[in-house]
Specification:
The complex is a heterodimer of chains A (500) and B (503).
Chain A: H1 6-10, E1 31-34, E2 40-45, E3 51-58, H2 72-79, H3 92-113, H4 120-138, H5 145-152, E4 156-162, E5 167-174, H6 178-190, H7 197-213, H8 216-228, H9 242-247, H10 250-260, E6 266-272, H11 276-287, E7 310-315, E8 321-328, H12 336-347, H13 353-361, E9 365-373, E10 380-388, H14 394-410, H15 415-431, H16 436-450, H17 455-464, H18 468-478, E11 484-490, H19 495-498
Parallel strand pairs in A: 2-6, 7-11
Antiparallel strand pairs in A: 1-2, 3-5, 3-6, 4-5, 8-10, 8-11, 9-10
Helix pairs in contact in A: 2-10, 3-4, 6-11, 12-17, 12-18, 13-14, 14-18, 15-17
Chain B: E1 3-4, H1 12-21, H2 36-42, E2 49-50, E3 56-59, E4 65-70, E5 76-84, H3 95-107, H4 115-124, E6 128-133, E7 137-145, H5 149-161, H6 167-183, H7 188-201, H8 222-232, E8 238-244, H9 248-259, E9 282-287, E10 292-300, H10 309-323, H11 329-337, E11 341-348, E12 357-365, H12 369-385, H13 390-402, H14 411-424, H15 430-439, H16 443-453, E13 460-465, E14 480-482
Parallel strand pairs in B: 4-8, 9-13, 9-14
Antiparallel strand pairs in B: 1-2, 3-4, 5-7, 5-8, 6-7, 10-12, 10-13, 11-12
Helix pairs in contact in B: 1-13, 3-8, 5-9, 10-13, 10-16, 11-12, 12-16
The chains are: A alpha+beta (500), B alpha+beta (503).
Amino acid sequence: MRTPLFLLLLILTQGMGLRAQESPGEALPVLEHTLENGLRLFVLPRSGAPTVSFVVQYRIGSVNETPGVTGIAHFLEHLFFKGTTTVGTTSFEAEAPLLREMDAVHDSILAERGRHAPDSLRMERLAARANDLAATASSYVISNEFDAILSENGARNLNATTSSETTSYFVELPSNRAELWFILEADRMRNPVFREFYTERDVVAEERRLRLETNPSGLLYEAHLREAFRVHPYGAPVVGTMEDLQGLARRDVEDYFRRFYGPNNAVVAVVGNLDPARIREWAEKYLAPIPPGQVPPDVEVKEPEQTRERRVEVVFDAEPSLRIGWKTPPATHDDAPALAMLASILTGGRSSRVYRRLVLEDRIATSVTSGTGPGSLYPGLFSIEAFPRSPHTHLEVEAAIYEELDRLKETPPREIELQRVRNQLEASDVRRLSSNFGLAVQIANSETLYGSWEKTFSFTGAMEDVTAEDIQRVVRKYFRAGQRTVAVLVRETTEKGRGR
Amino acid sequence: MILRMPNPRSGFWGALATALLCIPKGADAQTVGHSPREMVRALEFEELRFTPPVVRKEMLSSGVEVLFLEDHTLPLVTLYARFKGGYALLPRDFYAAATALPGLIRSGGTQALSPDSVDHLLDFYALQTAFGGGGESTFSSLNTLTKHLEPAIQLWGELLGYPRFDSAEVEIWRGRQIETIRRRKDSPGGLAFSEFNRLMFGDHPIGWEMDLGDLAPRRLSTETLGTVHSRIFCPEHLIFGIVGDTSWETLEPLLEDMVDEWPACSAPLSEPRVPEMRREAGVFLIPKDLNQSTVVLAQPGGISQGASDDYFASRIGNSILGASGFNSRLVTRVRTEKGWAYSASSLWTAPSRYEGIVGAVTQTKSESTISAVQLILDTMAEMKTTPPAETEVDRAVSQIVNGFVFNFQDPAQIVSRQMFYLSQGLPEDWLERYIRGIQRVSPKDVQRVFQKYVDPEEMIILILGNPADFDLPLETLGKVQIWEVPGVPRGGWLGAPAMPSRW
């Protein structure tokens, strides 16, 4: 028989109470160990199937780049899979001089291209020479051997990612093959060879075309950040500009690697069905001998205070979309939990304020999302992205968003809105512990960014303590017209866009 | 049962040793004996001993089968409901309603609860739900903290069994769908893939693309949705899968109560239609002024899922050709060696009831489009003329065999896999049979299936991009036809004035 629903409805009038205990993530039995060379190791043994997840994360990303070499960290992420002096080659001894000669030819190509009137015949000759050298060098290359060794051993999830502030490499292996990871990872931390450099540069260019240049959301995102951050490196794309990519030389990348990818700038997280003593033993054996490098300097560039609204239009053959971003402090700031809470109150699900208004009531948009970014360590943006529903325009959507924010400035959110988010946080505190891989990423990321693996878990506690007044205060403080940057994607430019 | 890792055909170490034998001795004299390569070679792995959890099979009094895996790792329970039936087993008149059904079960309220009340309850209990469909099936999942299990199942039962399909929510869904149609052309990849389905499968559910006619009020109304619901959401179509921190003793009464009064199906579903696929080769263009082309090429693939030698050989063949990432030939050639694409992959689908398709996809800059297509076709042709190297087959098999344990990493994955087997009529031990089957595949088998089923000269090729910037005339690949996309001006977007704001 059907269940009476009055029991369900009762809860609408009751709260589940504020959480007073620590997040279960904070209580995880994570073992910490720092090697003599500065590498920080975090090991979390778990029950379950005999598999292990590995994440190595470096505290370096696009924020450490300067104009002219944007995209170098991401490009290096690709090149880190190209093998070492012994993996991926039949003879590095024979390969090395060819690589050097290729670099010289590519330098000449760049120099010729940079001349006022490039000599097309010379360019052709140089290109032909570069191709010949690449062909000869490739006869010594075992393409993708690093990947092949791991894959043959049953590896899953072998990949890497670069963000504004970090670069992460990850893989999962059956537990009995964990030592293999230490051997291969230590080898590429110590002896990487950035072979197949110039073809991989073309691959990154294809990635840029795929993610940004033919993708309306990617285009708008790039333009939005560029407009909002005119000085700070948050304004540059992680993948780099096409011009900078084409100008990157192998020695630039090698030099960057030698300086900033030392073990003292790395965090390793190992999570799974494992023996912690053996993990530590292998770390000492394989990773400890790697000499330390430099630590990238903190980014000193500061974005000047924004006092007037900025607007940018991206003209592209696609339906309109909209991004509004307000300057907000970094994730380490005391207001960060309130801003994270605000994102849920505004656009977290069907009951959230702005989603409800735009999608369900006014029906002027098909979706709306919000969040902070693009990084965590420096002042960034609280952004709202929305997709107008025809015939409604981005201006209508924009106006409705401002109205909702103004409402919050006038009246703080209701307690039930906060409780809804707190309940979800309580459940997500448990859900986020589900997978080995997810835990390894969270531990590494939290340690890399904040110097504390627990920080990511305690942050939700700080969010749960946010009050309605806190929400109102941060909205009043940060959501001012003069602090916002608006980016719209349109098919044809408008007077309003031209005028700004 | 103790699960022992099955040995690959010739063993991983056989495979790696073979690969290493290709390396000239003394190539790196100063490190021989100490190099990472040598260290890798010297590794000996302990046997992986593991007892996979056993999924319990139960049946409710209504005949609904339940697969249950108890797992107390975290205070969470996940429930899956899989129903036979979806738009592919109904006439086209029901396409919009059957597509909308899962989403409107979530958002459209129930007979006893308004849409708002449902939202509040889901939020309050912090329930994570999913609702979706796959043409021939419809599914939902629910994840809850253990302490809310009872109200969670009650609410889930309300949603699945007694939906309201609130007319205002139906209108919101319709409006968003119309916008989705308008925006379909904004994603080059999405457009190329869905248009390829239309090109290949025509008026078969796989080739259907939602249009304004589908969204007409009579085809998408509270009543139509109710009709579709009554044909799909009935006990005889349902399989439950449950995993997590609870016991069968707790679950059984809750599940009995949930489906106890659900009526039988109101009318039978159609049998799955066997698609009449396009078989003649052709080159089709969707012109669009972008600097990167999307390429989709395929032909009927001759293989369906089942324990045949050809099936297993096609799995390994596909892996070698382009389905195993960096270990595949397409990635190695198109990406690694040429730098022409960020991704290139092959596909060889094998549905359970009819043959699938075999082909490849990539995205490449306009200036390398034709060369990339030719390289893909040449790489396919090589699979016919020469058997793959023993090492390639070993690697493909080793990857699956040595990674076998990952099939048991996530208890939820174990249950949903068993649900899939049950729904498809596959034996419970299909995974083990699969592993045994691929271990029998030889290089000659791979060559044989490519010779039997794959003809690169007869591929149906669809390119979305700007031919003015292609490296070679598109006609190099064959006679070119413009592929008309509904709602797009004839001839595509090139040189066309701004798109009309409404279709």
